[in-house]
Specification:
Radius of gyration: 20 Å
CATH superfamily of the largest domain: Ribonuclease Z/Hydroxyacylglutathione hydrolase-like
Structural class: alpha+beta
Strand order of the largest sheet: 1-2-3-4-5-6-7
Number of strands: 16
Helix content: 25-40%
Number of helices: 7
CATH topology of the largest domain: Metallo-beta-lactamase, Chain A
Distance between the termini: 57 Å
Shape: globular
Strand content: 15-25%
Largest sheet: 7 strands, mixed
């Protein structure tokens, strides 16, 4: 079922609508799923917005999670029901609720709020519908199965389409950057549990929203998943090495364990702080570091 879209990848019932620049942020790879009676779109990207929509009628829009780049094309479907996991759906109701997902400090929030509204065309959807783990969207001989996969956000999900042997991974993007758990609604422990569950996902095609695109072949997917997960351990090992001397949280944030030094995005300090806080809490609970004086940590 071919569609008129540049670099579309046809996987049978599933068509990957490859985003501009191969789906690199701020763009992404949206997914069209079509059955005998209904069709739906997963994660309308900025490329979908710029194209004015998709070259097929859809009856529903599904989101792997509520982040700015995954809703950038949603305003092209104002009358189509939009669905997100019950833990994320509130973020669609208003820009204020959306910003709670990130938990940015006041100055960073002001700047990023403008980006969300102007660059990513956020429009409130107080009519957003919610689903839970295990839900199934039946399209007529094709089912899109929901698997709750939190960590990146509270409600992040992956979608399994058995009839196409395809899994839509959202922001489990298998990139060299590694897992992102730097928002208020992110959780390191949940992300690690999700990565463990992903090892059991059935399928031969694995679609990421960014970077890697579609990985075909289960062994290749598992190898990339292991490399992606290993980034967490490398960050933690680097942090432990840094804490051979007593360090404050501000020193840890300035040193950067998530982003490279040249990255100037205004959200970077917040992400570094939120990520470091989670690693510090875990290492302290394990007895691997100690707080030698208020706010200063040492192996």
């Amino acid at each position: 079922m071919s569609v008129d879209w540049p670099n579309a990848l046809d996987l049978g019932a599933v068509t990957v609508l490859t985003g501009s620049h191969d789906g690199a942020y701020p763009h992404g790879n949206s997914v069209l799923v079509r059955g005998r009676t209904r069709s739906l779109l997963i994660d309308p990207s900025l490329s979908v917005f710029e194209a004015g929509g998709v070259p097929a009628a859809v009856q529903d829009v599904l989101l792997t999670h509520v982040h700015e780049d995954h809703v950038a094309g949603l305003s092209r479907f104002p009358d189509i029901p939009v669905h997100a996991h019950q833990a994320d759906a509130l973020g669609l109701h208003s820009i204020d609720e959306m910003m709670k997902i990130y938990g940015l400090p006041e100055d960073g929030e002001r700047a990023f709020r403008r980006v969300v509204e102007e660059t990513f065309h956020f429009r409130p959807r107080p009519d957003a519908r919610s689903f839970a783990d295990g839900a199934c969207f039946e399209l007529g001989g094709v089912c899109v199965e929901v698997r709750h996969a939190p960590g990146h956000t509270r409600g992040h999900c992956v979608f399994v389409v058995p009839e196409a042997s395809t899994v839509v991974l959202g922001d489990i993007d298998l990139s060299g950057f590694g897992p992102y758990y730097g928002d208020a609604w992110s959780d390191l422990g949940d992300f690690e549990a999700t990565l463990q569950h992903c090892r059991e996902l059935p399928g031969e095609h694995f679609v990421t929203f960014h970077h890697k695109g579609t990985i075909s072949g289960r062994e290749d997917f598992l190898e990339r998943l292991e490399a992606f997960a290993a980034v967490i351990g490398r960050r933690e090992a680097a942090l432990l090495d840094f804490l051979q001397e007593a360090r404050s949280l501000e020193e840890i944030v300035a040193h950067r364990f998530v982003y490279r030094p040249h990255v100037t995005n205004p959200v970077v300090p917040h992400v570094e702080r939120r990520s470091a806080e989670q690693h510090l809490a875990r290492l302290h609970s394990q007895g691997r570091i100690q707080e030698v004086e208020p706010g200063r940590w040492l192996v």
